Amino acid sequence: MALSQLVAQGTADEEDDELTLPVYHQQDDFLSLVHVALMIRADVPETPGYKRLDIGMHNVGDCVPESLQMFLNLLSGGERLLDEETIEEKENEVRSKALAVAQDIVYGVSNGKKWTPKHVGLGSTLHQVTRSKDLVKLFHKVGHILSYDQILQLDTGLAESVLNSLDEKSGTVIPPNLVQGNFVHFSADNIDILDETLDGKNTFHATQIAAWQRGAENSSLLDGVNPSKKRSLDIPESMDKIETIVARKSNPVFIKAVKTTWYDQAEDKKECKQAAKATDLAFNMLRSEGVIRSGWTEFNQSLSRGEFGDKFGHEVTKVGYMPIIQAPAHEMDTLNTVVKKCMHVATVLGQQYTIITVDQALYCKLVELKWAIPEYREKLVVQLGGLHISMCFLKTIGDHMKGSGLVDSWIESGLLGPNAAETVMNGKAYKRAMRAHKITLQALWRLLVPLLLKFCKTINVDLALQILRLLSSEQNVNDLITCLKSPQFQTVYDEFLTHKGQENVNFQFWWSYMEMIFILLDFTRAQREGDWELYLDSFRAMLPYFFRYDHLNYAKWGSVFIAEMEQLPYEVLQEFKKGNFVVKWKEGAFNEREEPCAQREGPCPQREEPGPQHEEPCSQLEEPCPEREEPCPQPE
């Protein structure tokens, strides 16, 4: 209830309707303050403490006395809050600040015996993000969070609640936020900390598994979860058990005979290819004419927004982290353990097939494991991670353009420095590389668009005038894309490329570079939009370049990946067509990505100060988890 309404309600029962505040003489000021302070202090013990983990603003009011709330509201907002016409937004802002201070007062007056949502939530968050014992102690010393021991009790309580779903036989824990009936897929990745030391000691190699499922989080997820009385957790032995494998290496095994047509690149007549090609061309035309100033990602986000957010209707994906496996990810026994744990979770959730996404280094071993075990051939689907595919193709582009003068143009224009340009050409620094190639593509289109429009006038005047009219305003972008997809424009476009190629051999070389960027952007678009058909088509287009420039691992296992994806079970294929091969990290449009990339953005599971842990930790790391060399891609 608003403060102004509380005051109005309190005076309604009085005989005198006039709202008055007590007026004290100067000599009474000190005594008045003493009386207010003692009254508020007496109210604090009457409020219940808060030791649950499901925290929110609606829980704060029960922990703070009304007298303290009113005092701090008046202290923060002044007498204007007594006005019934006070703007609600302003009053809520003052109330939020006052409640933050009020919780510190309650915690301090009770000598830490009465917990509040702020001290629980802020303390747990600070510890999870930093894993710094000293920082937690510093914040506790000034009264903002719980003590370090109390936070460990919170973490242990959470861990104990998760272990309620432990399957003793397989040592598998079901993430509590997953629900039955919704499609679930998994990702696995290596965790390597201090992987190289002088004596080979104190290194850490483990494997992390995450489960991904679309749909809202369970609002009652933390109901009934209370802090533990213990600071650490005894891990059941079954959780650390590694499932050994005795199967020998097997020859490739496919459900159907592999067809060469599976590797044919899609014709431009396919709707997904036409739409992607026309959208990118419309963007570059509008940029070259100065109609828009947005970047490629922002432009596509604006096109992908529907009336209620994402026009594709994809829900935000929730992640369920599973306990790490303390063994190197590249070992076959470790991968066998990963598969068995994921299969158990999928089975419990009522799903017949298990889908696991890994990068190329693990993909080859996981596929060989699948071929070797009959049970895995029927139920296991292995996905190849998209981030490393993109980075390998960036290296392929660098090989293609070596010695072309592209690096010199980047350096002389000030776009990149010498070292950064070399890094981009080697397929490193994903975000920087994508930005450099996008800007280069826009620069080349700025030269080509006037020539294309001039050529169009000689072939089809009406079409050229229509395009010029549509280029006059950003509001015409959808009509422009439709026009650029038309057969009439495609004919003009193909004739233009043929004409320029015959006229200038140098054009053919730089157009080959542009075509490679088109493929890379199509692949990125497929992930951002969850377009399975475009994803496979753009990957098919990459394969010849992998062979040409001797990226043999991706050439070999990329061919296997295509064959595996062409034989997907019907249920899995339908989910992939709905976009369920990537994850949607947050609300919005054109922002989806593949699982291993999203998994790396989560908290590192092993740092200097673990939460719930073994009584005897296997190793004590002296340094925090280092940043990966290649950050996951974000919308530019």
Concise description?
The chain has 636 residues and is α/β, with parallel strands linked by helices. Helices cover 52% and strands 8% of the residues.
- DSSP helix fraction: 40-55%
Strand content: 5-15%
- Count of extended strands: 9
Alpha plus pi helix count? 25
In round numbers, the mean pLDDT is: 84
Q: Given the helix and strand composition, which structural class is it?
A: alpha/beta
Shape: globular
Compute the CA-based radius of gyration: 31 Å
Distance between the termini: 43 Å
Unreliable spans: 10-21, 602-636
Q: Main sheet: which strands, in order across?
A: 5-2-1-6-7
**Quaternary structure of the protein:** single chain
The biggest beta sheet reads:
5 strands, mixed
Summarize the topology:
Blueprint: H1 3-12, H2 29-43, H3 57-60, H4 66-77, H5 88-109, H6 117-130, H7 133-141, H8 148-162, E1 184-193, E2 204-214, H9 271-288, H10 296-304, E3 305-306, E4 309-310, E5 317-325, H11 332-348, E6 354-358, H12 360-372, H13 374-379, E7 380-384, H14 386-400, H15 406-413, H16 418-425, H17 430-459, H18 461-470, H19 477-484, H20 487-503, H21 505-529, H22 532-548, H23 552-565, H24 570-577, E8 583-584, E9 592-593, H25 595-600
Helix pairs in contact: 4-5, 6-7, 6-8, 9-17, 9-19, 14-21, 14-22, 16-17, 17-18, 17-20, 20-21, 21-22, 22-23
Region (Disordered): 592-636
Biased composition (Basic and acidic residues): 606-617, 625-636
